Amino acid sequence: MSTTNAKAISEGEEEASRMRNETLEESGHSGAVKRRQVILVAYLIAALDLTFLFMQFGIMPYLAKSLGLDSVGFGYLQTTFGVLQLVGGYVFGRFADQFGARAALILSCASGSVFFLLMSISVNIPLLFLSRLPTVFMHGMPGAQKVITDMTTPSQRADALGKLGLCFGIGIIAGSALGGVLSSKFGIYVPTYVGLVGSLINTLTAMVWIPLQTKPKSDHQVTEHSNLFSITEILRLMKFPGVMEVFIVKVFAGLPIGLFMIMFSIISMDFFGLEAVESGYLMSYFGVLQMVVQGLVVGKLANHCTEMTLLRLSVFVFAGVGLGMALMRTVWHYCIIAVPLVFAFSMLATITDSILTKAVPSSDTGAMLGICASVQPLTRTVGPTIGGILYKQFGVSSFGYLQLIVNTGLFVYLLKSKIPLKEMKSQ
């Protein structure tokens, strides 16, 4: 009888163990599905946020001109936007680390709502400048990056971050088209009304769909540093192995092409002889390339190559793009050059973001993403002055030669340096 009881107990324990394992598997599967849903929502919010942003980029010159703002004043307006984004990028990242990705994304979307509200009532120049203030916290892309960083393992990160480029492409194409159509058919302020309503919807979506805690519980830490802006904290992050080296490559590899893109509206008119509509088509072409590269190329390469290999590849391609830009003479040349240009630009942005977020503690990934997001505003702030001097004194080819020289130097540096990286290859 005792043997029978022991056997029954053993069988009962085995059955209980099997049921526990099945429950854990179901829980794990459910958790994976939930994470995928949250990531998809982050993609959606980012795509809509960028669409509204490019809508206002399209109408801003016309709105400023209608209010009597001259080219110098418009330059000041753009510089104000660049400075606010530059300062706000790191502050936003620190906010995300301290209060969570959900709170940060809600802050960004709510700031967008205030921005479009102020734009919609900008009937004079002071109000137009005032509408720039909320942009200090408008960082939809870094907010989505923070959600994705928290919801993915390090080996999945490069692929998941790379797919955000699809959102960028959608934003360029849809935003540019919608801004032009709505403003021409219904009035210059209509895109701001659409942006206001859309940003409010994004805010509610983030509240409902993004979980309060996006990091795994074992990985959830509250940073000890309460200051939202601290030079000491930036320097602390830069001291982690490999961070300073990779960040320098990120800044300088893309700087020459950043200067070129800032001057592109003038170059397209003076050098290529394009009309406004043709420039719009060229921007749409860029958007399509961005979507193809980010959606189909970056993720696959990240699964098969080490991140250092991809970093070297992007810098090498950038050097080749520089040579092509130095020799180009027509817009068709530029359309051909745009293919490797978009590839190098997308690869560099994705891989460096992935490397840098892995190199710092999980409690500092938001701050690191904020610092990365400040690179483009920095270029927009100093770019008009430097780009204007290069274009006026040396012509379009100067951007290409600068690109070639800088990236050749960086490529040699990457070949010789031994930068310590984590999760070198996606599994």
UniProtKB/TrEMBL annotation:
An annotated GO cellular component: nuclear envelope
Any Pfam family matching the protein: MFS_1
UniProtKB keywords: Cell membrane, Membrane, Transmembrane, Transmembrane helix
Subcellular location field: Apical cell membrane
Bias type Basic and acidic residues, positions: 15-28
Major localization class: membrane
Any one GO MF annotation of this record: transmembrane transporter activity
Membrane-crossing segments per the record: 38-63, 75-93, 105-129, 160-181, 193-212, 247-267, 279-297, 309-327, 334-352, 394-415
Lipid bilayer topology: Multi-pass membrane protein
Xref: PANTHER family: SOLUTE CARRIER FAMILY 22 MEMBER 18
Described function: May act as a transporter of organic cations based on a proton efflux antiport mechanism. May play a role in the transport of chloroquine and quinidine-related compounds in kidney. Plays a role in the regulation of lipid metabolism.
Name under which the protein is recorded: Organic cation transporter-like protein 2
Lineage: Eukaryota, Metazoa, Chordata, Craniata, Vertebrata
